[in-house]
Design a protein that fits this description.
This protein is mainly beta. Helices cover 0% and strands 50% of the residues. The two termini are 25 Å apart.
Length: 254
């Protein structure tokens, strides 16, 4: 989990305790903005982005609870925070977005380090992309495409992973055309979206037709995390009052 104290706290599920804390003694990172465990050959490797434009890789030391740094790279300027990251284990790629609207695709080695930049784009150059913060990025299916979700705009952009060319962009179909955090189901047929007002909405994917509404009381319009779980049969959503809401993905009951 990331914290506002510019550190990453790693918890052992079996032990139920904090087993490691990652921080920078030189205080270069800034706030931790996004965290992603890498899958595939780079498993046990953690990737995270920071408020000062850094991307870092840390790998768990074998037979130990400690982690060692593999890479620390400034991918964006000091005043352009990393907004979101996602990893594709099929083709070993990393997609990264910045608060100022830059999107970058990188290849990642089997050891969990950067190899090369594949392409970079600016969201402002895309149709309907001007002024939109790329709050969420997701690889789709086997990694042939990536979607970018614009903060508050409710617009989802799809791009080809190999060259960054546009595939499509579409406005989500809801009475609240706003969006915060979003998550794809494991089978890639549904998208869970924080509507920034009073809960989460579930959409079909890629059609983005509105399927269901999950009500969660909210006092402030802050981001809430949500995810599909148990084979996408349930949805777990956070709140601003210390409770986690678990819904059935088919009946919407909690």
């Amino acid at each position: 989990m990331s914290r506002d104290d510019e550190s990453v706290h790693i918890w052992g599920i079996d032990e139920g305790k904090n087993i490691a804390v990652l921080s920078d003694r030189l205080e270069r990172w800034g706030q931790i903005t996004s965290v992603k465990w890498l899958e595939g050959v780079a498993q046990h490797t953690l990737c995270f982005g920071t408020g000062r434009g850094f991307i870092l890789f840390y790998k768990k030391v074998k037979d130990s609870d400690s982690f060692r740094e593999l890479t620390c790279r400034a991918v964006f300027p000091f005043n352009n925070p990393v907004e979101a990251i996602d990893h594709d284990s099929h083709k070993e790629r990393l997609i990264v977005s910045s608060h100022a609207g830059k999107i970058a695709m990188y290849s990642v080695s089997k050891q969990g380090t950067f190899l090369e930049t594949i392409w970079t784009k600016r969201l402002s150059e895309l149709t309907n992309g001007k002024g939109t913060v790329p709050q969420v990025v997701h690889f789709v299916g086997t990694g042939d495409s990536v979607i970018i979700c614009g903060l508050e705009s409710g617009i989802v952009f799809s791009k080809a992973s190999n060259n960054g060319n546009d595939s499509w962009n579409q406005q989500i179909k809801s009475s609240m055309d706003t969006s915060g955090q979003s998550q794809l189901s494991l089978n890639g047929t549904k998208m869970l979206v924080d509507n920034l007002v009073d809960g989460f909405d579930i959409y079909t994917f890629p059609g983005l037709e509105h399927l269901d509404y999950l009500e969660i009381p909210r006092s402030e319009p802050y981001f809430h995390g949500g995810t599909f779980a148990e084979g996408s049969n349930v949805v777990a959503c956070g709140s601003d009052h210390g409770q986690v809401y678990v819904f059935s993905a088919t009946t919407s009951k909690h």
